[in-house]
Specification:
- The structure holds 2 protein chains of 2 kinds.
- By secondary structure, chain A is α+β, with helices and mostly antiparallel strands.
- Chain A has 3 domains: 2-41; 50-158, Particulate methane monooxygenase, b subunit. Chain: A, domain 1 (Jelly Rolls, Sandwich), CATH 2.60.120; 233-431, 3-Layer(aba) Sandwich (Rossmann fold).
- In chain A, 31% of the residues lie in helices and 29% in strands.
- By secondary structure, chain B is mainly alpha-helical.
- Chain B has one domain (7-226).
- Chain B starts with 6 loop residues before the first helix and ends in a 6-residue tail after the last helix.
- Classes of the chains: A alpha+beta, B mainly alpha.
Chain lengths: 432, 245
């Protein structure tokens, strides 16, 4: 227990009165000091309560809410107890209050149940510190140091996948960035049946499914033969490389390009997994995080979510370092490499990485599995002339870097974050 | 949003200074301090005689000074109150000033009664009243500023006011017993407690009251989380959060 400023002043006054009374043998003055001492002696009649905290879940999707229950068992006493659950800056209080004043009763102990809910708008691992309890004495003459109740609690906010689908149609040239409908230019067709589709010139006649064609023609559903489409070996693997460069911090403290990059990476992973691909993931410039080797199934999505929750801004390891580290995966499985980043000029590591990814897709001079760059456009809105100027400058830089990527043999798709859904990007990509 | 203001605190300052002025005037006017100067400064204000006019001026000046002190109001108030109490009560001293100061004309004092004790302790009483009122007002202001629910704020302010009032009454009651003892009424007549022994007894009673009331709080304050838990909590606070960006 320590005296507050008021308490210290009152104590100094008490000493002044009492000491001068004693010094001069003046009882009335000493009596005034004694009165102040008596008042001060009543300043410490509050007791700290027991506090218990619970949250409804410690693992949520970005943008979800978490309900926090704080149970306070206030003992008998005088005064007020301040119960405060500090929240990370990025959390938003939705309902209730994370700061309460519990009044102690001198006659009986009471139990208070305090509940509030918070919005977790940003992905990551967030720590809720212990509940802070501060006993405020009745007259504010003394205070106890804040007491921490409970243990720190970690809440993991995972990226929220964006619903994304690519409409299927007939095969086209492999110029479109998302290859689920493309014919691979490498590898061989497997025996794994994928779908029936209409015959197009160039299809081998042995692929025609005569029974299905007869049924379709007799019912009038189609007037051309149907062929069996099978999965292709050469496009079974996708390697998503997410860039965590500080450049992706553009945006607000609640929502920046890195959040969208994580969401997009997870959405692409789910999309390709639904199509039967083996999808792996790695981070660059986001600290030392082990890569997720290509795999399939729900477990892979779960692992990717946990991994994406750790995506953060850093400068190492560089993209080239990551590509070197994962050379075995890239060489053995020959995956489609998708780099999710925000392009900008003057980034040597990015330039070198683009050239390396481009080289990876080429074999004997032919661009077999051209890599893909998903470029996040998060430029400021052009509300003022200055902003428009800045936006134009950034756009020029981005276009220059896009040309570098294209020169390296990569395909570039821009996603205007917040202005169009991810599905629009997928559709636009395939129509190019 | 407009920032809440502790109007009660400021109103309490004005009230306290008004009360200090009244107490100080009565103390100084009835004290030989002013009477000794009646020949030196023949002064008359609003029909008051010389000593009363001096008491009026002294009380007025010393009552206004705390209002100018800003955040150091309470300290200045207590100092001014102490000065007024000293001027009003200095003649009830055990020190033989008459013998030390030749031809001082020091008036013979009468032993202080309970009323005199209350009057001398007046500034201290007023200061305590201000502490209570200001506490309630500031508690409301702080709670509003930090976004505490209105109902909780009201309840806490009411509890602080009631507790403060009870404290004032209780402390006054205990002090009154002490003053009766010190005043030679009960102490000297019943138990022959006068002089230094009475002073020692009074000091012992005050210290005992302090010790008893704070014993429990000290014991509770020591009941902290284990060092490990405190360390972990400290680390968590210092780490704050592990932000992804």
């Amino acid at each position: 227990m320590a005296l507050t400023r008021t308490g210290r002043t009152l104590l100094a006054g008490a000493i002044l009165f009492a000491a001068s009374g004693l010094l001069f043998g003046n009882w009335p003055v000493f009596g005034a000091g004694a009165f102040l001492f008596l008042v001060l002696s009543f300043s410490s009649l509050a007791r700290p309560p027991d506090v218990e905290r619970r949250v409804d879940t410690d693992r949520v999707l970005r943008g979800a809410r978490v309900v926090v229950d704080v149970s306070v068992r206030a003992p008998r006493g005088l005064g007020v107890v301040e119960v405060h659950q500090a929240l990370p800056d990025e959390f938003a209080l939705l309902q209730g209050n994370n700061l309460h004043l519990v009044t102690l009763s001198p006659f009986r102990a009471r139990e208070h149940s305090l509940r509030f809910s918070v919005l977790v708008p940003k992905r990551g691992e967030w720590t809720l510190p212990p509940v802070e309890v501060r006993v405020q004495h009745p007259l504010g003459l003394a205070e106890t140091p804040p007491l921490s109740r409970g243990e720190p609690l970690t809440i993991v906010a995972e990226p929220r996948p964006i619903p994304a689908r690519i409409p299927r149609d007939l095969r086209t040239r492999a110029r479109r960035p998302f290859p689920e409908g493309d014919l691979a230019r490498m590898g061989i067709a497997t025996n794994e049946f994928r779908e029936l589709r209409e015959y197009v010139p160039g299809d081998p006649p042995r692929r025609i499914n005569w029974k299905a064609t007869a049924r379709a023609m007799s019912s009038g559903a189609s007037d051309v033969p149907l062929v069996n489409e099978t999965e292709w070996e050469g496009k079974k693997n996708v390697y998503i490389l997410v860039d965590g460069h500080p450049r992706l911090s553009v945006g607000t403290n609640l929502e920046d390009a890195r959040e969208h990059a994580a969401d997009a990476a997870l959405s692409l992973m789910e999309l390709y997994l639904r199509r039967g691909y083996q999808v792996g993931m790695a981070f660059a410039r986001s600290g030392d995080v082990e890569p997720l080797r290509p795999g399939t199934g729900e477990a892979q999505v779960k692992r990717a979510r946990q991994m994406l929750a750790r995506l953060r801004a850093d400068t190492s390891p560089g993209i080239v370092d990551v590509l070197r580290r994962d050379a075995a995966i890239l060489h053995r499985q020959r995956p489609l490499v998708i780099l999710v980043t925000r392009l900008a000029a003057g980034d040597d590591d990015l330039d070198a990485a683009l050239r390396r990814i481009g080289a990876h897709g080429r074999q004997q001079g032919r661009n077999l599995v051209p890599g893909l760059v998903l470029d996040l456009e998060t430029e400021p809105e052009t509300t003022t002339p200055e902003r428009a100027l800045a936006g134009a400058a950034l756009a020029r830089e981005r276009l220059r870097e896009q040309s570098v990527a294209r020169a390296a043999g990569l395909r570039v798709v821009s996603w205007r974050v917040g202005r169009e859904p991810l599905t629009a990007v997928l559709v636009r990509g395939r129509l190019r | 949003m407009r920032r809440p203001v502790a109007w009660g605190d400021y109103a309490s300052r004005l009230l306290s200074c008004a009360l200090l002025f009244l107490t100080g005037f009565v103390l100084v006017a009835n004290s030989p301090f002013a009477m000794r100067m009646r020949n030196d400064i023949p002064l008359s204000l609003w029909g008051f005689d010389g000593p009363q006019s001096i008491a009026l001026i002294v009380a007025a000046v010393l009552s206004v000074i705390p209002l100018l002190a800003g955040p150091a109001f309470l300290g200045t108030f207590l100092t001014c109150g102490w000065l007024m109490s000293g001027m009003g009560a200095y003649w009830w001293t055990l020190i033989p000033w008459d013998e030390w100061i030749t031809d001082s004309g020091f008036p013979t004092s009468t032993p202080p009664g309970l009323t005199d004790f209350i009057l001398v302790a007046g500034p201290a009483l007023v200061a305590t009243l201000h502490v209570i009122l200001a506490r309630v007002s500031r508690l409301r202001r702080d709670a509003k500023e930090r976004g505490v629910d209105e109902e909780e704020t009201r309840r806490a302010a009411a509890a602080a006011f009631l507790t403060g009032g009870a404290t004032l009454v209780l402390a006054f009651g205990l002090a009154a017993v002490l003053w009766l003892l010190l005043g030679g009424g009960l102490g000297s007549v019943q138990w022959g407690l006068v002089g230094l022994p009475a002073l020692v007894v009074c000091a012992a009673v005050t210290c005992a009251a302090w010790a008893i009331s704070t014993r429990r709080a000290r014991k509770l304050a020591l009941r902290r989380p284990s060092p490990d838990a405190a360390d972990r909590a400290g680390r968590a606070r210092s780490r704050g959060r592990r932000s992804p960006s």
